[in-house]
Amino acid sequence: MSFSTGDSVLDSTLTDWLRWDQNPESKSFIQKLVESNNVDELRNRLLKRMEFGTAGLRAKMGAGNSMMNDLTIIQTSQGLAMYLVSSSPHVIQKGVMIGFDARHNSQRFAQLAAIAFLQKNIPVYLFSQICPTPFVPYATVKLGCVCGIMVTASHNPKEDNGYKVYWENGAQIISPHDKGISKSITENQEPWPEAWKTDSLDSNPLLKQPFEEIKSSYFQELQKICFFKELNPSSPLKFTYTAMHGVGYQFAVSAFEAFHFKPFTPVLEQIVPDPEFPTVKFPNPEEGKSALDYAMKTADENHSMVILANDPDADRLAVAEKQPSGEWHVFTGNELGALFGWWLWFTFKKANPTETGADVYMFASTVSSKILHSMSKKEGFNYEETLTGFKWMGNRSHTVIQEKKRVVFAFEEAIGFMCGSMVLDKDGVSAVAVCAEMATYLYHNNLTIMKQLDKIYEMYGYHVSNNSYFICHHPPTIKSLFDNLRNYEGSGKYPSSCGPYEIKHVRDLTAGYDSSQPDGKPILPTSKSSQMITFSFVNGCVLTMRTSGTEPKIKYYSEYVAEPDSGKSKKEIEDELADIVQHFIDRFLQPEKYNLIARTS
């Protein structure tokens, strides 16, 4: 097909696409754009390439370089294969691990990725069926692979998919690997000769299918963090579970069996993996009650007190408990972080009564609650804060473990939990079992999950959070909003107050500034590729605003910590924090000025 837009770069890119793409659907789509002379759409799809970052890739599925499709998966895998050959030559002996979820095209994308590595004589361990995301980092380490790949878009809308990369330590990649892989992708865009021949996979001697082996090993090892095998089978507590139309059901069943629980009650409408997610507006249990309607109905009908919910790739866990009023309380990620932190320290001490905690570590991301820090000061274990994302906690955990120390827990407020160090990433499957055991123990001792949370706050201080987000689809607007705070009202400085609330310190991890440090430089790593500013108020409140790496969101996280002897009630703290957040929204975010869309649930 001959076609000229007058833009030589577009014409060349278009020619390459039509020559390289062998998927009839995506190739036909681009051809129709050519026939209708839709130059703007061609530019958007072909000249804007997905950026490979520390989260790998995540984007809408469709035709073009800016989207997830057969050709971009092939290019990404070829680039990663060449990067591994050059940076880790032992990949030829050790191989790579590949898994996939139940989304549209996930299995095909995994197969196309496998073909790329096999063409370079790299052994491939490819799961034969859908799996939860944490199985990939677990298998990567267990099998001694150099790299792990999970095809998933986690809790994103049904139109999206992704390509998540783990290093040989079982943690998500961090710099400089992301930059090296990205460069290699641009250098290996033309599909190799066998790139599309997925029918050759079964006969390739370098391809192995380790699903059953890994599943058996995972659930056997999971029992190491089960501490009440005798109590669990006799528990009268009833659990309801939902897989949110994702992969989690069969693995949650196995987790319950590993901990010797009676079977839970599943949400029947959401058991079977379905990439259309027909019963939920957003397949994200983090959205709270709106995402758990079916689970609450099932629980009510079966007299269940506790709901456990995985997201579609089962690396996150949401928990709800029925209150005496009959209402359901959906615990925030920070509340669950407090509960898991208490539980994993309690069970560690049960198993190791003579140890002090000097060699024990817990981690949380910088936008998460500081409750673990408060615990560590009283209990004597080590607490560290990392940048947002489990890639940082996973890699830091690996370093600590190499130093012969123990990592017992890590969490982020977005309902991501790492219980123990079996998987150096968030793991919703292990969290299902650990949470069920914790709840069983509490109910056996005439407590509830909510009552225990109150006890934790009474012991370590109230840690009250108020988190949400606004949606903005226009990156220049987001940049303008953040830049305005760096030059607040034309002052050339950051704001010194937010309404009546005085700001003590400002940390900007985009610009590399921290007023609390003697040299004005932050301790945490900085990055100009994302926006993140933290305000510390004189009254002790901390508020962080940041852009999401995977969604068009401006997120904000706030926490007010009051010591146990502060004399302030939880209600007083909540009211003051709500007032601070409202001033922050009105004065700093200015949603009307920037046309921001508020969270609807």
UniProtKB/TrEMBL annotation:
Keyword Transmembrane included in the entry's annotation: no
Gene Ontology biological process terms in this record: glucose metabolic process; purine ribonucleoside salvage
Domain Alpha-D-phosphohexomutase alpha/beta/alpha span(s) in chain numbering: 50-190, 217-322, 359-444
Protein name: Phosphoglucomutase-2
Subcellular location: Cytoplasm
Gene that produces this protein: LOC106173349
Organism, scientific name: Lingula anatina
Required cofactor names: Mg(2+)
Keywords per UniProt: Carbohydrate metabolism, Cytoplasm, Glucose metabolism, Isomerase, Magnesium, Metal-binding, Phosphoprotein
